[in-house]
Structure formats: C-alpha cells, structure tokens
Amino acid sequence: MAKSKPLISVVDDDESMREALRGLMKSLGYTAEAFASAEEFLSSRQVPLTSCLIADVQMPGMTGFELHRHLMASGTTIPTILITAYPDERMRERALEDGVVCYLSKPFNESDLLGCIHSSPVPKPIAYRWTGLPLPPEIRPRRSTSLAALARASGA
Fold it and tell me: Which end of the chain is more exposed for a tag (fewer CB within 10 A), N or C?
C-alpha cells in the first residue's frame, strides 16, 4: 500500500498568500488544502488529517493564535506555524510558549518556512527530504522562491 503524502493546511484570509502557500506546499511534495478562515478549517473534514497547520495571525473572526489554542484545548495537536504581517514580540513569545512551532513575519522566504516545517514532527514527503541546503532546481517553484512573488504570479 502506498503511503499518503502529509497534508499541510493553510488558513489565511488573504487569497493570494493562501494560494501561493498551497502551491508551494504541493510543489514540495505535500498534499495541501487552503481555507479562508479558522472557522472554515474547523468545519472541514481535514482537521484530523492535517500534519501541519500554517495560519495567519490576523484574520477576521478567530485569529491564528486563537485557532491554535482552540485545537490544543480540544485535544487536537497539530504542529502550527503562525505567519503575520504585523510582528509583535510579546505575541511571538506567547505563541512559542504555547507550543507554536514557528512565528514568521511576512514577507518570509520559502527556506524559512521549510525550516519551520522540517523542524517539527511533520512527516517528510518521499519526493523531498530537507537537508538544510537550497532546494534542488527540479522542485523549486518555477516563478520565484519568494512567497510574495508567488502571490503576485498567481494573479491574486
């Protein structure tokens, strides 16, 4: 029986960022799903299948930090990476103390995000095992290694 690819769930209200991250995760060999809100993610069937969660901190309704805390309180432990356009050192410290894997400030590059994913207990896709070196050309996103450029290239 073939192993299934690990699922990375992306929760971000910014469509261009959400789709850029989903595309990047797929290009790296993961299964990826994208959600416009924490509530949409929580009501999906993907929660128990998610190997890693990437969530924006600032979203309407439930924030990424509140989503992480809700999951933990309900007994659902998913390695979580929080991303934000509005970095706050106190929020970062609280998030890391609460078990968030990484807290990244936008814009960030794919190597920072990959470092976060691969430092957590997320299974690595068979197609790619991170060594800390730059991505091989055959699995690099075609348009750019910058997530901001990926978002612009997606047309959103």
Answer: N
